[in-house]
Amino acid sequence: DLEMTQSPLSLPVTLGQSASISCRSGRSLVSSDGNTYLNWLQQRPGQSPRRLIYQVSNRDSGVPDRFSGSGSGTDFTLKISRVEADDVAVYYCMQGIGWPYTFGQGTKLEIE
Amino acid sequence: EVYLVESGGAVVQPGESLTLSCTASGFPFGKYNMHWIRQRPGKGLEGVSIIRNDGGQIGYADSVKGRFTISRDNSKNSLYLQMNSLRSDDSGLYICAKDSPNGSIEHWGQGTLVSVSS
Q: What are residue A79's DSSP bridge partners?
């Protein structure tokens, strides 16, 4: 299975400040079609996961532009600007190139 | 609107078998790959299995290979997971998910709970 490694696993952030989560894959996530299949998901307490970003940097409809994704190959970053209380959740990276899809360990964002 | 409703979760003993089902609606089921994802208590997400839209290609996590079997019935808009030789570390919430063409998952069910305990 394709390993995905996230850091940090715990992320205390002050309201209004920025937060950054890193994700590294065990091999390149660039497909033969030229696309890079790296996603970011948000899971709020008691809820199913919700996709925020697909193919590295494409935000889903309704996702605030405070959320942005970047990276290439095997190294990726999710940045959350101006953190709000509603952002408290666990964030996962997920690769969509190998079967089955695999996930990072999750990063728990909390307000300090 | 997409709906994915899982069922079949139960409390079972180690070594026993269980079959989970997922009934889908709101989209052309037979056109999409489908996933089973699990979340152990207090832990992260784990991709368990994926099946191509026509059932012709299947993938399993190493942790379940040889014990779990994924299948689908497109005429019934249903996805299944047959789980054999269950172990305590198979306990968790099993979530049915709809694949998205861009190497992603856009829709998730609420999950069904499996508990393996003696």
A: A20, A68
- Locate B34 and state its tokens: 């489908």
Q: What percent of chain A has pLDDT over 90?
A: 99
Going by the DSSP 8-state scheme, the letter that residue A60 receives in this structure is P
Strand order in the sheet with B68-73: B3-7, B18-25, B78-83, B68-73
Find all residues with CB under 8 Å of B28, minimum gap 6, and list them: none
Contact B47 A31 (CB under 8 A): no
Is residue A82 classed as helix, strand or coil in its secondary structure? coil
Chains A & B: contacts with CB separation below 8 Å = 76
Mean pLDDT value across residues B18-26 = 98
Question: Is residue B89 classed exposed, middle or buried when 0-12, 13-18 and 19+ CB atoms within 10 A define those classes?
Answer: exposed
Cβ–Cβ below 8 Å for B105 and A55: no
> Do B61 and A1 form a contact (C-beta atoms < 8 A)?
yes
B10-44 burial: b if 16+ Cβ within 10 Å, else e? eebeeeeebebbbbbeeeebeebbbbbbbbeeeeb
Q: What is the mean pLDDT of chain A?
A: 97
Question: Model confidence over B33-77: pLDDT tens digits?
Answer: 999 999 998 899 999 999 999 999 999 999 999 999 999 999 999
Q: Using CA atoms, how far apart are residues A57 and A60, in angstroms rounded to an integer? A: 10
Residue B56 at interface with chain A, using a CB cutoff of 8 Å: no
Percentage of residues in chain B having pLDDT higher than 70:
100
Name the nearest CA neighbour of A23 among A12, A39, A11: A39
- Segment B6-35 shows an average pLDDT of 98
